[in-house]
Amino acid sequence: MTDVTSLAVCLLLGMESGLVMAAAETNPPLRLMTLEPGHFHAALMQKQMQPDLSAQVDVYALPGPDLGAHLARIDQFNARAQNPTYWDEIVHTNGVPLDRLLAEHPGNVVVMAGNNAGKIDRIQAIVAAGISVLADKPWIITTADFPKLAATLATADTNRVVAYDAMTQRFEITCLLPRELVNTPAVFGQLADGTAEEPAVDMASLHYLLKEVAGLPLLRPPWFFDIRQQGEALADVGTHLADLVPWTIFPDQALNYRTDIQLLSATRWPTIISLPEFQKVTGESVFPAYLADALQDGKLQYYANNTVIYTLRHTFVRLKLQWGFAAPAGSKDAELAIFRGTQARVEVRQGAAENYVAQVYVIPNRPALHGTVATALTAKVAELQTLHPGLAVKDLGDRFQIKIPDALRIGHEAHFALLTRRFLDYVHHPESQPAWEQPNLLAKYFLTTAGVELARKNTQP
After folding, report:
1. Which architecture characterizes domain 170-410+448-455 according to CATH?
2. How much is the average pLDDT of 192-217?
3. Average of pLDDT values for 371-378?
4. I want to staple 189 with a disulfide (CB 3.0 to 4.6 A). Which of 83, 105, 343, 358 is the partner?
5. What is the rounded distance in angstroms from the CA atom of residue 321 to the CA atom of residue 223?
């Protein structure tokens, strides 16, 4: 990380947890166990040292490329020039990884980020053993597993352990700002109801399969391309958007998935991947046998794209998730979020016009509101300086841009330090976890899994 990013993370860690060193002195030490790391997020949980977390980490996994890639990333963190880590990875490769972890459990917290098939069964077994777990999304990818999710949360409560979902975008400044602005009536007005054609909340993301992580080319495991193991887009990366919607418009409020969500429509369509492309992104020479039913004319029909329209407490919401193979020259991942209020819109745009750097805009609904919104927005941004120093308002004529200093743009990978810090604080004090977390986790996964089930009835070419 750069010095600016490192400083920002340290400052934010302090804001999240009080005095971090004081926490290390007063809380009992924790020791991490990593189970079957098959996704690079498992390593990112260790990108920063934590003062109350032992440097010894036990990894339970079968030998293979997933394990090798994970250990290589940890080695890279240990060897970097700036702020190197000093993890001591103790690797256990004999036997069934989960069974051996539960039998030995040299640590008291587990990190999971890998194959999503049966993930909820592994989480359930861990919390049943009285061990806290930080699990990467998604926890479930089918409606059939939804009852297990509710049972797992109940078991965690009974055993006074923490089962926490890795929602890193809650730490992103371009997500934090809309949450503040949407809930400032002097700027935003009241949240509109919207319609199916023009929803009050409209969010979209475009990701690419071929990318770099921590400065290295990312080789994805071949099972990533099996929707029975990875999940479709809405059930996978869609969990972030499904989480951000209520977190933004109904902050700190518990949802009831039975009454607060009504699914209206959903679609799916494939990203076509040739064998040479598959070889480039996985390092494999052929399509594995388990993908045979997804091949057409020698190409993989990878169902990595979804839309869903639903209402959340009578507010219309649309989510759109897309995966391309590789970004065209000069472009990157793109995101869009629109929140419509009675006085103004709050938008987050990360496209070509923003040079693929997310920007936050406030757009008055009518020219006559320009002065009113300007005054209220300037006052709100001044109020936010305590938590987010350096913010400024730029008048662009028909809209306002929130200027965000580089020190607050710590990046996706650095968010994992903040996520891990919050999880560890909850482990020390399970009662401090907000009451809305569990019902909203249920609501999120009800939406994503039921949305995929509905989308499969409307498959598009």
Report:
1. 2-Layer Sandwich (3.30)
2. 89
3. 98
4. 343
5. 20
Which strand ranges, in their side-by-side order, compose the sheet holding 132-135? Answer: 88-92, 53-60, 30-35, 109-112, 132-135, 163-165
Please check the confidence at residue 216 and state whether its pLDDT lies above 70: no
Three-point CA angle 235, 241, 242, nearest 5°: 65
Question: How confident is the model at residue 215, as a pLDDT?
Answer: 64
pLDDT per residue as tens digits for the range 24-50: 456 678 999 999 998 889 999 999 999
Closest CA to 271 of 322, 328, 222: 322
Residue 269, amino acid: W
What H or E segment, with its residue span, contains residue 373?
A: helix 370-383
Question: What is the distance between the alpha carbons of residues 381 and 373, in angstroms, rounded to a whole number?
Answer: 12
61-71 per-position pLDDT tens digit: 999 999 999 99
Q: Which residue has the higher pLDDT, 28 or 277?
A: 277
Dist. CA 42–CA 38, nearest whole Å: 8
Instruction: Show me where the domains of the chain are located.
Output: 3-166+414-436, 170-410+448-455
Q: Contact 232/143 with Cβ under 8 angstroms?
A: no
